[in-house]
């Protein structure tokens, strides 16, 4: 079972932000911004390459609700999903990074 499936199953503890039937959101263990939350489907989906459009539609609303709950909806935030090796994906269970709580910059990525 992958690391994030273990977090879903509460075999590994996490600092939960929001949970519903299909998704959970928890604080990243190594935050790179004042707000750094990961939103994931409870079902194991490897990456953005494998996600169905209806699941994307549902997680859109879930992420909007996270932003509202964390009070970054109006101030602004960023959503990132890393895909595959060159995308920098380390955990092979799709996750959306939700970053905010400060002015974010747009660095050179390579
Ligand atoms: P990736 O590089 O795959 O896009 O992002 C994986 C993210 O998962 C990283 O930001 C990393 O800090 C986070 N992470 C890795 N292991 C754990 C963990 O056990 N708990 C939590 N909360 N975050 C983790
Ligand atoms: Zn998994």
Any descriptors?
binds guanosine-5'-monophosphate; 110 residues; alpha+beta; HIT family, subunit A; binds zinc ion
Reported CATH architecture: 2-Layer Sandwich
Strand order of the largest sheet: 1-2-3-5-4
Quote the CATH topology: HIT family, subunit A
- Strand tally: 5
Q: Mean pLDDT score, rounded?
A: 98
- As a percent range, the share of strand residues is 15-25%
In terms of quaternary structure, what is this?
single chain
The number of distinct helices, counting runs of at least 4 residues, comes to: 3
Class per helix and strand makeup: alpha+beta
Question: Which spans of ≥5 residues are poorly predicted at pLDDT below 50?
Answer: none
Q: What summary fits the major beta sheet?
A: 5 strands, antiparallel
Number of domains: 1
How far apart are the termini? Answer: 32 Å
CATH superfamily: HIT-like
